[in-house]
Specification:
Elements lengths: L4 H10 L3 E6 L4 E4 L1 H7 L3 H4 L16 H10 L6 E6 L5 E12 L5 E9 L1 H47 L9 H17 L4 E8 L2 H8 L1 H17 L6 E6 L2 E7 L3 H16 L12 E7 L6 H17 L5 E4 L17 E2 L2
The structure holds guanosine-5'-triphosphate.
GO biological process, one term: regulation of DNA-templated transcription
GO molecular function, one term: diguanylate cyclase activity
Catalytic activity: 2 GTP = 3',3'-c-di-GMP + 2 diphosphate
Amino acid sequence: MQVAPEILSALFDISPSGIAIADEQGRYLQVNEAYCRLFGYSQNELIGQTFGLILLDSDKELEPEILALALNQDQSAPSEWQVKHRDGRVLFVHSAFKTFHAPDGSARILTILSDVTTLVATLRNMQDHELLLRKANENLEEIVSNRTMMLEHANKELARLATQDPLTGLYNRRAFETEAAKAIYTADRHQRPCSVLFLDIDHFKSINDQFGHAIGDEVLQKTAEKIITLLRCSDLVARWGGEEFVLLLPDTPLEQALVVGEKILDAIRSLQLFNTQIQITISGGLVERQLNTPLEHTLQQADMLLYQAKQSGRNRLASAPALPQHVDSLLVAYPNACVSQ
Ligand SMILES: Nc1nc2c(ncn2[C@@H]2O[C@H](COP(=O)(O)OP(=O)(O)OP(=O)(O)O)[C@@H](O)[C@H]2O)c(=O)[nH]1
């Protein structure tokens, strides 16, 4: 269907896109209102000028190439260009052109340009914002990850403080009770013997009095270190308080526990502390736990035996087989306790 010339003419006049018709030398023959508005020139100023007028200074030398391209191709693919407004502003335009060749060799190049400067600026703005957001997000992730690490570290530290004796690094009393409860549960389940040993450094007060509290602390640390070296991984050892240690030896009946206890007493006797200025001994109360009795009961028995060892002259172990849970008086509970020397 042919479009009437007056419609085409009206289209040229009212189009919001800039339309220009140029000759084979790229000189403007006709421009519409929108084209003039786009570049800030009047029609009179444009007619007769070449399109080089609207090229960026850096693109000026490309004018012949662009012209050749327009003449040799029938129709360009729409593309984005940067062009120059009269006042020097750079404009982004979306362009399309079509070339008409006449039999006499002359040509008419029809160009349509739409101003997309605001769109491009908005897009770039959005991209910048996206970049900023991404960076902010990365920073946030880093902050969160650092905080999480700090929190995990703090939690581990808290857990350590809650379970460890700060001086010796051994379990504290609470942690011992928790771990021992698990161990005796397993022992009862599998009907396995286990033994409990209370140890107490002899005359420790005199070490503090003679050498000072700091040296006393070191003696406690060295004692703890020595005890650990003599135990199995499955054994539990804790600082019960002051100069007192408690051990739970799973899978260990009394006769085997006695070997361990004597080994510890021997090792403590042989400890060379502060260039042999300090020598210590330790006393112990050792009992084999009777199955299905509360831990507390076994601990009391071991403590009573320790008391007996101290009463019998220190530097020795007092031991006894397991007693039934309901013993009327623990003080008289060990008529048969063995005291070694
Ligand atoms: N250096 C140091 N001393 C401690 C610590 N905890 C407790 N003590 C001291 O250990 C001493 C224990 O004294 P006593 O309970 O009389 O016992 P002992 O002198 O070892 O005497 P026996 O147990 O009867 O052989 C006290 O002087 C406490 O102050 C500690 O963490 N560091």
